[in-house]
């Protein structure tokens, strides 16, 4: 089954094209990493995918329908969660919201829904926080709660925008393990990330710089020349013991990353 199909797709907002000519397919159980600087089109692609922005031209099908038409089958985590700071809700309330898409706002939760909520909180190690107000949690704790919400959807398509923001090493490991399990279950995964070390593990990587720089496997796409087009500066490590390693320095965002690739076979 095809989870996402884009053909001759142009995306943007207020009628302005940000990224033209997108062609891609993501199958059930497949994963796609979106990589690029701030303003490159990653979040625009995601917001179009989930139906928050209209398709400007071309076509996009999501779970066999137009974007935004399958809310019960899609879990979406954005970069921003303003409600977490102003509403007096608890961590468990946030995770329970994941079941609303299936039950409806006034639907009655069943035992299996409660089990999914408990399971998701355990996976992300936030069970102990279940009755804490969300606004009293640290940034990393909140992000774990939001990721537990994603898991509790039990969605066919998971869409994440910078999901590791604020996570410590333990939280990041739990997130990676959870997403690997979701892929194994058959869910499709789309993630916008600055973490090239994570992106290389995805089935496909889409490099964006207000255009499609490259689309393919991490081994084929995450190369010094393509990353140069995407980020601006790539510095190879001259030391023999570090052969195959290089540093990516973005023009506009974040700290440089050291990336290791496999050298060609002797």
Give a structural overview:
The chain is of the alpha/beta class and 266 residues long. It is built from ten helices and twelve strands. It has helices at 42-49, 83-86, 91-96, 100-103, 111-123, 139-153, 169-185, 196-199, 218-221, 224-231; strands at residues 2-13, 16-27, 31-35, 57-62, 74-77, 157-161, 188-193, 204-208, 212-216, 232-236, 245-250, 257-260. Helix 5 (111-123) packs across helix 6 and helix 6 (139-153) packs parallel to helix 7 (169-185). The longest helix is centred in the middle third of the chain and has 17 residues, at 169-185. It is globular.
Descriptors for this entry?
31% helix; 6-stranded mixed β-sheet; 12 strands; 3-stranded antiparallel β-sheet; 10 helices; alpha/beta; 266 residues
Assess the beta-strand content as a share of residues.
25-35%
Proportion of helical residues: 25-40%
Q: Measured on Cα atoms, how large is the radius of gyration?
A: 19 Å
- Can you write the helix and strand succession as a string? EEEHEEHHHHHEHEHEEHHEEE
Averaged pLDDT: 86
**Helical stretch tally:** 10
Low-confidence runs: 238-244, 251-256, 258-266
Number of strands: 12
Given the helix and strand composition, which structural class is it?
A: alpha/beta
Q: What is the assembly state of the chains in this entry?
A: single chain
- Span between N and C termini? 39 Å
| Biggest sheet strand line-up | 5-6-7-3-8-9
How would you characterize the largest beta sheet?
A: 6 strands, mixed
Shape verdict: globular
